[in-house]
Design goal:
The protein is of the alpha+beta class and 255 residues long. Helices cover 52% and strands 6% of the residues. Helix 2 packs across helix 7, helix 5 runs antiparallel to helix 6 and helix 5 packs parallel to helix 7. GO terms for molecular function: glutathione dehydrogenase (ascorbate) activity; glutathione transferase activity; methylarsonate reductase activity. Belongs to the GST superfamily. Omega family.
Length: 255
Amino acid sequence: MCTGISSDRLSAAMSRSQRSLVKGSPAPGPVPEGLIRLYSMRFCPYAQRPLLVLAAKGIKHEVVNINLKSKPDWFFEKSPLGLVPSLETPDGKIIHDSPIICDYLDEAYPGNKLTPADPYEKAEEKMLLEHFSTVISTLYKIFFAKKDNQNTTEVKEQFFEKLKKLEEDLTKKNTPYFGGQSVSMVDYMMWPWFERVNVFDVLEFLEKTPRINAWYKLMLQDPAVKETYTEPDVLLAFYKLYSQNSVDAADCGLD
């Protein structure tokens, strides 16, 4: 159980959540008709990506949370590497890896298209996400350095250099979002790590990148972001347990 979180904020953050399944838990039944099932973990940023897409597109779905420290044996049938997210369709098809899942959802479900139709614009977004993958890796270097009580100054400087490149990209594009005039797939693919800036202790760098800071504030108002958002104090409580390798981390805050 997490500590140090006010009860009102905790209940609001957890009202949409469910306890994770662990080793020995029975497998869920078939995916109900009219729904699609996402195997997730409540605090995983990669799993938040398809949750954002599901919310943005209004796709009816159910979520099965998996405890990644104690995975049910049957889960490897749903995800060969035992990772989340993984998607299961009513006819038993399995799709895994967050970018692939998100692309599938955008193509399989009409309305509110999140990826550009123009091939070059699509390639631009994929190149941007390739760069962003290096931002993610740097953020985790910061996290593990903090966990091991190491000096984070150098790796934070590396993060800031990568963030400045994103700032240049957004300045050159001259739009409020990385995807253009409205929020799109590339914004949702990047957002989960910006939601965790407090966990990685890099919030100060947003103030030094005004374009990204403006984007960050706009994203906080997006309906899909609001629907999937977890409060910073809840995230911090989870990552404290996670850094202790606690099996209880996945159900942080649940009774």
